[in-house]
Design goal:
- The chain is about 10% helix and about 50% strand.
- It is mainly β and about 180 residues long.
- Strand 2 and strand 3 form a beta hairpin.
């Protein structure tokens, strides 16, 4: 009878050891965010450049948002606001940018605004297809994207080309952004 607690303790220790070992045996990526990468290049030499002045870059998307509305009687109801514009500042007054990493929306369109000065800005509209990706059931879902189209204004920038239309969690350049600079 006295041997049963010892056997039970050894069995419990063995199961715990196996359980802990299985938690360390996954092949999950450490980088779980997919972001579109833009290289900033000279239009003339195609060499890397940095924006010398501070710029603010925001990304926006349109989505349906649920808000809580308080009625005159004090009750609270959930209300869906259709086509709400959601903005997020990605870079705030950053100087010497030579590369941009912009997260894309889970919807099919992301709009990026680059504010150079109070009066000068460019807008970039990226149309993309979100692609859920599961490498392992224990790792969760990553969101990858396929770039389908890009439109942009040319107030300060010259052009943008798609270098790689597949946006993943790997560090690859997806867009080349060209500016005219005095060299």
């Amino acid at each position: 009878m006295k041997k049963y607690p010892l056997i039970l303790l050894i069995l419990l220790f063995g199961i715990t050891l196996i359980g802990l070992n299985s938690c360390n045996d996954d092949n999950c990526s450490l980088t779980t965010t997919s972001a579109a990468t833009f290289d900033l290049l000279s239009s003339n030499s195609h060499s890397s450049i940095a924006l010398t002045e501070a710029v603010t870059i925001t990304a926006s998307t349109i989505a349906d948002v649920t808000v809580r509305d308080t009625l005159p009687d004090g009750s609270v109801v959930d209300k869906v606001v259709k086509d709400s514009i959601l903005n997020d500042t990605i870079y705030n007054a950053e100087k010497k940018l030579s590369k941009l990493k912009i997260p894309l929306s889970y919807s099919t369109k992301t709009t990026i605004t680059i504010q150079y000065t109070e009066l000068l800005k460019d807008e970039i509209e990226i149309k993309h297809r979100p692609i859920p990706f599961v490498s392992d059931i224990n790792c969760g879902v990553l969101m990858f994207y396929q770039i389908e189209d890009i439109k942009y204004t040319t107030n300060a920038l010259d052009s943008i080309t798609i270098a790689n239309p597949k946006v993943t969690n790997e560090e690859t350049v997806n867009f080349n952004m060209y500016y005219t600079i005095a060299e």
